[in-house]
Design a protein that fits this description.
This protein is α/β, with parallel strands linked by helices. The protein has two domains: 152 residues, Rossmann fold (3-Layer(aba) Sandwich), CATH 3.40.50.620; 118 residues, Rossmann fold (3-Layer(aba) Sandwich), CATH 3.40.50.12370. The protein has ten helices and ten strands. Strand 6, helix 5 and strand 7 form a beta-alpha-beta unit. Helix 1 packs across helix 2 and helix 3 runs parallel beside helix 4.
C-alpha cells in the first residue's frame, strides 16, 4: 500500500491537492493522510499576569482548545468533500486518514514525513494568505527539507492529470537514477518524460555526447515513447523554457530538490526555481536519499 501525505489548511488549494492525489491513484491500494497544523502561538495580554512574569512563556489554554476544535471541525468538512471526490472518481482503493498538530508548520511537516515515511507528499503552492500555514515560500522550504518526493500543486489548478513530464537536465551523474525513480513512482500511469537540456554557447558537441549516453540508458523506454530527449538552443532561456512547455504540453516539472544550484547551473543564473513556479504548473521535487 502506498501513502500520500497531504498538508492542508482548508483552503481551495487543499481540496485541489486532494483532487490531484486522487488522479494519481492507479490499481494499487492507497492511503491519503491529511495533516493540519494549527497555530498555538496565542499569547495572553501582559495585564493578565503579575508584573515581572515573562508572558511569552504562557498561552491561553481556552483559545488553544477552541482552535483545535475548529481544526477538527474543518477537517471533518474537508474529509466529506474528499470522500465525495473519491466516490465520483469511481476509485474504491483509497483509504482516508488524518491528524492534527500544533507548532511550526515546516518543522511539523518534516517530522511527520520522517515518522510516516509516505511515498509522496502533495501540497499547494499557496494557502489562506497570512492566516494559512501554506502561504509564501512554504512549498519551496518543504521541497528542500523533506527526504521524500514533494509535489506542489498551484492555486486553482484544474488539470488533475498529467501526460507530459519535463525533467530539465544539466547531465548530473544522478540523472539515470532519478529518471528510474520517476518511472517507478508513477508506474501505473501512462505518461511521457521529456528530458531537456538548454544549450549554452560552445557546448553543443559535449551536450550531444552526454545526451546520447542518457539515450542509451533508456533505449527501450525511448523506443516505446515513454521518454524523449531534447537539446534546446536559445539566447533567451526564459522564453525557451516557456516555449518548450507550451509546445510539448508539459503538465508537470520534476527536479532534484537538494541540488540548490541545479537551476542556476542550468541557465547560468538567468533562471531560478521561482521561474518554474511562475509557470503555474505542478512541480515535483525529488531528493537523492528519498526512496520509492
Amino acid at each position: 500500500m502506498k501513502t500520500i501525505l497531504i498538508p492542508v489548511d482548508f483552503s481551495q488549494d487543499s481540496l485541489n491537492s486532494c483532487k490531484y492525489a486522487i488522479s494519481l491513484v492507479g490499481k494499487e491500494e492507497f492511503t491519503f493522510h491529511l495533516f493540519h497544523i494549527y497555530n498555538d502561538q496565542v499569547m495572553v495580554p501582559d495585564s493578565s499576569f503579575p508584573s515581572g512574569l515573562d508572558t511569552d512563556a504562557f498561552f491561553n489554554s481556552d483559545v488553544i482548545i477552541a482552535l483545535k476544535e475548529q481544526a477538527e471541525n474543518n477537517m471533518k468538512s474537508l474529509l466529506k468533500e474528499v470522500e465525495a471526490e473519491i466516490q465520483q472518481s469511481g476509485k474504491t482503493n483509497i483509504k482516508l486518514m488524518y491528524s492534527l498538530a500544533s507548532g511550526d508548520p515546516q518543522w511539523e511537516i518534516t517530522e511527520t514525513c520522517e515518522e510516516l515515511q509516505p511515498d509522496l507528499l502533495i501540497m499547494g503552492t499557496r494557502g489562506l494568505g497570512e492566516k494559512g500555514f501554506l502561504q509564501g515560500s512554504m512549498a519551496e522550504k518543504i521541497m528542500e527539507k523533506a527526504q521524500i518526493p514533494v509535489l506542489a500543486v498551484p492555486e486553482d489548478y484544474q488539470k488533475f492529470h498529467f501526460k507530459n513530464l519535463l525533467y530539465p537536465t544539466n547531465f548530473d551523474k544522478l540523472d539515470i537514477h532519478t529518471l528510474q525513480r520517476l518511472m517507478a513512482l508513477f508506474e501505473n500511469r501512462s505518461f511521457t518524460i521529456h528530458v531537456c537540456h538548454f544549450l549554452l554557447d560552445g557546448e553543443n558537441e559535449q551536450a550531444n555526447i552526454l545526451m546520447d549516453e542518457l539515450k542509451k540508458a533508456f533505449e527501450k523506454e525511448r523506443l516505446d515513447g515513454k521518454i524523449k530527449f531534447s537539446l534546446v538552443a536559445s539566447e533567451n532561456k526564459e522564453e525557451a523554457l516557456a516555449t518548450f512547455v507550451q509546445f510539448n504540453k508539459i503538465d508537470l516539472i520534476a527536479f532534484l530538490s537538494e541540488k540548490k544550484h541545479l537551476i542556476k547551473d542550468l541557465f547560468r543564473n538567468e533562471l531560478h526555481k521561482k521561474d518554474f513556479f511562475r509557470l503555474e504548473l505542478p512541480m515535483l521535487a525529488l531528493h537523492v536519499k528519498s526512496t520509492i
